[in-house]
Write a structure and sequence with these properties.
This protein is mostly helical and 120 residues long. It contains five helices and three strands. Strands 2-1-3 form a three-stranded antiparallel β-sheet. Helix 3 packs across helix 4.
């Protein structure tokens, strides 16, 4: 996925996915965590999927991080990753949901308590 000096990739993103526009797993989100399974890599994988697997050799990445490293749109990486999940070469985990918000009254009481300790 090397690019030209002007920044445009030499290969359009839709070609890196084999012309597939939608991932086979719609639940794969931008912040889904991808991890390689360690299964043997078949010889018939497209270059873009091989590149994604190589990026996952060092550990887990979110879809958006992989997109940045591969210099591909997130939508293309979602398609590539879904294909690898279908072939049991990658595991995808849903993003960790954001923590519930803290009670503002509790935060105020903690801040007041810290201020009181500081003045003692």
């Amino acid at each position: 996925m090397t690019g030209r000096p002007g920044g445009r990739p030499l290969v359009p993103a839709y070609l890196s996915t084999g012309g597939v526009a939608r991932p086979s797993r719609p639940q794969l989100e931008r912040l889904s965590v991808l991890t390689g399974t360690g299964e043997p890599v078949p010889g018939d994988l497209p270059a873009a999927q091989l590149a994604l697997l190589e990026e996952l050799d060092d550990g887990s990445l979110t879809v958006v991080e992989a997109a940045a490293l591969l210099r591909l749109p997130v939508s293309a990486v979602r398609v590539l990753a879904a294909g690898l999940v279908d072939r049991n070469l990658v595991l995808a985990r849903a993003p960790i949901p954001p923590a519930e918000r803290f009670d503002p009254d509790l935060l105020k009481r903690v801040a007041d308590g810290l201020r009181a300790l500081k003045h003692n």
